[in-house]
Amino acid sequence: MERCTTRRAVPTRSRTSTDLIADYVRNVKRWRDGSMLERWVAAALLEVARGFRKIRGYRDLRRLVTALSTHVNQHRQPTQRKVA
């Protein structure tokens, strides 16, 4: 029965984009200025972006945000101010 529950006792942690960028820029030995940092981080982001997956329904996200903000505005309680 125990074999069916899990294959590993300790689940592996998924690597975030921050981890992958840190691995990419780790090779820089001497940072010269802020623009160098920006170039390396931009290059790392381009490299890491290859592994990103599209979110299903990403085209509808703007419509979802609009619907949620409309819902919140309709159900928002009016704030009561105390008169001194």
**First-residue to last-residue Cα separation:** 69 Å
Count of individual domains: 1
Estimate percent helicity.
40-55%
Tally of contiguous helical segments: 4
Shape: elongated
Please describe the topology of this protein.
Layout: H1 2-5, H2 17-25, H3 34-49, H4 61-75
Helix pairs in contact: 2-3
Supply database-style keywords.
4 helices; mainly alpha; 84 residues
Protein architecture, described:
- The structure is a single chain.
- The protein has 84 residues and is an all-alpha fold.
- The protein has one domain (14-75).
- Helix content is 52%, strand content 0%.
- It contains four helices and no strands.
- It has helices at residues 2-5, 17-25, 34-49, 61-75.
- Helix 2 packs across helix 3 (34-49).
- Mean pLDDT is 76; it is low at 1-8.
Please outline what is shown here.
This protein is mainly α. 52% of the residues lie in helices and 0% in strands.
